[in-house]
Amino acid sequence: MISFTVNGQPARVDVEAEKPLLWVLREDLNIVGPKYGCGVASCGACTVHVDGVPVRSCSMAASDVAGKMVVTIEGLGQGTLHAVQKAWIEEQVPQCGYCQPGFIMSTAALLKANPKPSDKDIDEVLSNICRCGTYSAIRRAVHRAAALLAGAP
Amino acid sequence: MAIIGGVAGGGLLGVGFWFARERDRLGDRALFNVKPNEAGLSGWVKITRDNRVIVAVPRAEMGQGVQTALAMLVAEEMDARWNQVRVEDPPENGVYRNVDILIDGLPFSPEEAGTVVDIAHWMAGKLGGVLGVLATGGSTSVRDAWHPMRVAGAVARDLLLRAASRNASVPVGELVAVDGEVRRKGGARVATFGELVDQIGELSSMPVPPLKKPSEFKLIGKPLPRLDIPAKVLGVATFGIDVRRPNLLHAAVLNAPTFGGSAMGFKVKGSLPKGVETVIIVPGGVAAIGSSWWRANKLLEEGIEVQWQPGPEPGLDSAALWRRYEGLMQDGKPALTRALGEEKKPATVRPLEATYRAPYLAHTTMEPMNCTARVTRQGDKNGVEVWMPNQSPTLMRMIAGKTADVPQAEVTVHTTFLGGGFGRRAEVDLVRQAVTCAMAMPERPVQVLWSREQDIRHDYYRPMALARWRAEFDTSGGTPKLVSVAKRQVAQSPTDQFPARVIGLPSQGKPEGNAVENPPYAFPSYKLEAVVPDGSVPVGFWRSVGHSHTAFFDESFVDELASALKKDPFEFRRELLAGKPRHLKVLETAAKEAGWGQPLPAGSGRGIALRASFGSIVAQVAEVAVTDGKTLEVKRVTCAIDCGPVVNPAIVRAQMESGIIYGLSAALYGEITLANGAVEQSNFPDYDAVRLADAPTMTVHLVDTGASSVGGVGEPGTPPIAPAVANAIFAATGKRLRSLPLRL
User: What is the helix (H) or strand (E) element at residue B340, kind and residue range?
Assistant: First the structure.
């Protein structure tokens, strides 16, 4: 049994220690916001927060999550829209939308660590893949989210 | 995205055929899943008691904004308020068929005319009507829906006005629809749309009222917010991989390493692990089925030995294939030959010849391939239910029925959101495997998901292609003059393979339509020879299909012509487009907005390319910087598009950026190679895509030339980017790159 917290709720799962967090979330806890894209920590579609740090959940073993706090796209706004999600809607970012939970989680973590990132900071941190090519909208939305978090209307 | 490639046109006959029967595509009011508290106004739209307008969108939302764009067409004519509009997937019915997509599949260049072309267009339209194919691709959705969905909106408005008139005893002539309400002409509200749910009843449909003039549009032409975005931002949009049904099983697949191979048998090492219930042979491979996809996939990767029956070319490798293509370039018999203009033979001639190469490409949609199916048995009656991110429910239903040996009527297909499509999701391999798995586990839904490795190694690839351009210049008068150009190209044909593998039609050996479109330039003489090789490598529809490689060949060579004539590449194109005002305006807009001709630092350069595809014309200027002769940076891309009437400019811009990034990923990194009959690449680390750090700054300019025919936008942004970048590299370094991907 492995115990941890997901989106504020306690979770206990009976899985192999090596089972990746992504598949624990999707198969054992029915939390399907984090997406499978590559399984090798390359594309970032599976990004969640573990103790506040962005993690590619396809490559983190369940045993490494024991006792930790996991937040997925479903829990990011805690019942309301997170500033990053608001900015994503204002800037009309998603196209197919599949990679966006990963981008949104990566951005939320980025802005926590660096509330006013430059384009270069954004490029360095957001290494996720979007095959629809929403990158310029993402750049705009990251700046907009930073402004919203700083109190902009 | 194209299912069947080609350029718009549609042909006057095709369009006329449908205009004459616009009521055919209106559909019965009861058709669109009308529930209590709702009233159907046609097969395309219903209203609800809580004042929502629900539009039927029978096309796959794969990011191109189709739900929003099609709903706007209905909402415009019925004068709905945008924030009351919702969309729903309608049941499968011929009313919702995509007519344009079949017309587009024909191997003609759009400007070709004549009896043969007209008959073929008419036949395709007719066939579309008879088959009633629901499909999304070829950038056809808005082109196909532009008329029938506006008609549906106008008919709905007419019904609402007459219902309100009868209910309030006000002459219908004194009523108008505004913002989701029926009002008196003076302004007083008579009823909201929702209040009229019970008043539609037995009102009969009248002749179709006249459609609005473009100057009367209130929604069309505005960057309205997309309907699908909130769910996608909240993480609650359901993609195929997210389908959850009671008693769901998961299945992973290992496909035969060589194309056309199959599994003869297998041996699991040890006993089946917890989480895996069974392993079975499926078409093309083996599937492990159980409660955990992760465990099932791990078993296939590490714990099983499969006896494979190899495909027909188990030893194939890329070098041998290029040699074969080079042989065909020399002496292969063309499947299509075309000659335009008159070839003159001047006294002294200087030739220019250049050979270009484009590799196989995988689609790598962000959502790996998947399909969920359930087979139920009641007595001797079987039923199949399919949940799938797909580009053609009609084909999926057909193949599901065939696989389970069940009549079509017993098959239901639910189309989820698509985590990318790009043409890959028109293919039927996944539905075959999923239904096969579901037959082994009756009554239980089985979700087949491929790993990314399977997705890249078992795609239907953009064809590898070889092209040789040749020009002749008359040098007798001092300044050389262009007298003729000729292209010979070798490439497999997706439109030839697709019907063969899906419905068993015999191969026709014909080239794919987009790959043989004529360049728009006024060359004195133009010749085309297209050789279509056999081959076991499966090829399919990759965003912009044949344009994706031929635009690179054609637009690179036009640059080489300019260079040989010592002309500016933009000015040279202008000269050759003198008779094409739309193309010219698009080209000039891109050049002007990019600052064409303004100085750049050393090591930097601009390249221009133009391509008309899917009814739209796009020009792009790429600005690159090359450092140390080896590091390439694409800094800026300026794009201009004329797509005719614009439904939603924000979506058009987004699709141009999307097409640019997709094409740039291929231009910079995309290459699928073969060794021992199998694909060598397997995942993003060796088949990479453009990421934020390499994404150029992009600006998109919508050009209005007053054209009234609607063009597509999902694909036309892709073709020009590779040649624009290659041409920019030449401008920056003097180095002409003739092979994709572009490597310095």
Answer: strand B336-341
Q: Are residues A72 and A113 in the same domain?
A: no
Give the DSSP letter of residue B464.
P
Interface test with A, best of B234, B238, B250, B652 (most A CBs within 10 A): B234
Q: Select from 3.30.465.10, 3.40.30.10, 3.40.50.720, 3.30.365.10 the CATH code of B240-311+369-449.
A: 3.30.365.10
Question: Residue B3 is encoded by which pair of tokens?
Answer: 């299912």
CA–CA separation, B57 and B442 (whole Å): 32
CA–CA separation, B701 and B646 (whole Å):
12
Name the E strands within B559-706.
Answer: 604-613, 616-627, 631-642, 674-675, 678-679, 697-702
Structural fold of domain B318-361+460-733: Aldehyde Oxidoreductase; domain 4 (3.30.365)
Residue A141 contacts B where some CB pair is shorter than 8 Å: no
Contact criterion met (CB < 8 Å) for B658 and A133: yes
* Minimal C-alpha gap between B507 and chain A (Å): 32
**Would you state the pLDDT for residue A56?**
98
The residue whose two tokens read 């070319």 is: B313
- Using CA atoms, how far residue B741 sits from B200, B442, B463, B546, B604, in Å, is 59, 47, 14, 16, 19
Query: Which residues of chain B are within 8 Å of residue A132 when distances are taken between CB atoms?
Result: 63, 366, 420, 658, 661-662
Query: Phi and psi at residue B678, in whole multiples of 5°?
Result: -125, 160
pLDDT tens digits, one per residue of A25-55: 999 999 999 999 999 999 999 999 999 999 9
Give strand pairing partners of B621. B608, B638
> In the predicted model, what is the mean pLDDT of residues B101-127?
52
Whether residues A71 and A95 share a domain: the answer is: no
CA distance A109 to A114: 9
pLDDT grade for B379, boundaries at 50, 70 and 90:
confident
Q: Which CATH architecture has domain B11-234?
A: 2-Layer Sandwich (3.30)
Pairing of strands B262-268, B304-309: antiparallel
Is A38 found in the same domain as A70?
yes
- The rounded distance, in Å, linking the Cα atoms of B639 and B658 is 12
* Orientation angle between helical segments B581-593 and B569-576, nearest 10 degrees: 160
Positive or negative CA dihedral for B650, B656, B660, B663? positive
Residue B520, pLDDT score: 97
CA separation, residue B532 to residues B2, B335, B466, B509 (Å): 19, 6, 11, 6
Identify whether residues A65 and A127 lie together within a single domain.
Answer: no
Are the C-beta atoms of B448 and B372 separated by less than 8 Å? yes
Complex ipTM value: 0.98
- For strand A69-71 and strand A2-6, is the pairing parallel, antiparallel, or unpaired? parallel
The CATH number linked to A99 is 1.10.150.120
Token pair of B740 as six digits: 């994709």
Helix (H, G, I), strand (E, B) or coil at B656: helix
For residues A61 and A109, membership in a common domain is answered with no
Cα B392 → chain centroid: 12
Within 8 A of A124 by CB-CB distance, chain B residues are 693
Characterize the bridge pairing of strands B481-491 and B525-531: parallel
Contacts with B590 (C-beta within 8 Å, 6 or more apart), sequence order? B608, B610, B619, B620, B621, B638, B639, B640, B701
Number of H helices, E strands in chain A: 6, 5
Task: Place B503 in a pLDDT band, splitting at 50, 70 and 90.
Answer: confident
* Structure tokens, B661: 């990034």
CB contact under 8 A, A132 and B65: no
Tens of pLDDT, residues B55-82? 999 999 999 999 999 999 999 999 999 9
What is the domain extent for residue A60? 2-76
pTM above 0.90, yes or no: yes
